[in-house]
Design goal:
disordered C terminus, 2 domains, single chain, globular, 60s Ribosomal Protein L30, Chain: A
Length: 299
């Protein structure tokens, strides 16, 4: 599909790139990814990027945990109330200049967060549980009821498999909105996984160091191609820019009520399926020929 054929296709322009959203219903646990792959096959052309959010991949893999089955330990309660809510919400957060939205959310952590901390402790350990929020990339906002989704298993393998199904010379990337940071020319993240070139599984230590480093934006978890980190981050952030523009974005548990009108623990699959989801975007470099003509017309 050429740029000229996009007139009837929903898209936006981001600098030198065209962003084409793939809209779906809610991808349910253990459901295949055909709702992403089928339109990608139709719309993509060689050299395009397909950038997919991590949560639909995880949910389709059935990587869901019911946090109501976990009883918070004393350590989990301490990490939730003393460490995250008060120490980070009122002292360390403001001191280190973390986002005002994050500080606001930390100060009103719900009771269920204690069970969440217990999940993080048991599955990922203290290194990740010390992170005041978004621990280990666990997503609380796009799963029904008291379920949460873990990061996808082997995202690089998944990306390669999706590329094979599309059967074109394209690049498939799976990303997480949790940050990658850079200090002294080296990239790192607190997340348990990331593409080659990004030092990962640093947990709280990566997060703390990140507050004193440059935030490079979303983290590529897996890619169908061997790609340099700078390019991968650029493409990941173009995709994230589009997601941020959506009224249905549910980045945190506190945005769930605004979007769905439901409390986090009472969200059903039907609720999640009642809104349009954008689990992936196609990113295409604008045609130099078309850009050149446009520049001439401007003159």
């Amino acid at each position: 599909m050429t740029d000229e054929k996009l007139d009837n296709i929903k898209h936006v322009i981001n600098g030198d790139y065209i962003v084409i959203p793939i809209e779906t219903g809610y991808i349910k646990p253990n459901e295949n990814l055909n709702s992403i792959i089928t339109p990608a096959k139709e719309l993509m052309k060689d050299n395009d990027y397909l950038v997919i959010a991590e949560t639909p991949i995880s949910v389709s893999q059935g990587r869901l945990i019911d946090e109501s089955e976990y009883t918070p330990s004393l350590k989990a309660k301490f990490l939730t109330t003393v460490w995250s809510k008060y120490l980070w919400g009122y002292i360390l957060g403001p001191l280190l200049g973390i986002k005002k939205r994050t500080i606001k959310n930390l100060r009103k952590l719900p009771e269920q967060t204690k069970a969440h901390k217990e999940v993080v402790l048991q599955l990922y350990g203290l290194k990740h549980a010390l992170k005041p929020a978004s621990e280990a990339g666990i997503d609380l906002s796009n799963a029904p009821g008291s379920y949460v989704s873990l990061l996808p298993e082997n995202p690089e393998k998944v990306a390669r498999e999706i590329k094979d199904e599309i059967n074109k010379d394209v690049c498939v990337m799976i990303i997480d909105t949790d940050a990658t940071y850079m200090k002294n020319g080296k990239y790192f993240t607190g997340l348990p996984i990331a593409i080659d070139g990004i030092d990962c599984d640093n947990g709280f230590y990566g997060y703390f160091k990140g507050q004193l480093s440059e935030n490079m934006g979303s983290t590529p978890l897996g890619c169908s191609e061997n790609m340099d980190v700078e390019t991968a981050l650029k493409i990941a952030n173009i995709a994230e820019d589009y997601q941020k523009s959506l009224s249905t974005e549910m980045k945190t548990i506190h945005s769930v009520k605004n979007v769905l009108g439901s409390e986090i623990d009472s969200v059903t699959v039907e609720d999640l399926d009642s809104i349009t989801h954008t689990p992936a975007v196609i990113i295409r470099k604008k045609s130099w020929k078309k850009s050149f003509i446009f520049m001439i017309l401007l003159k």
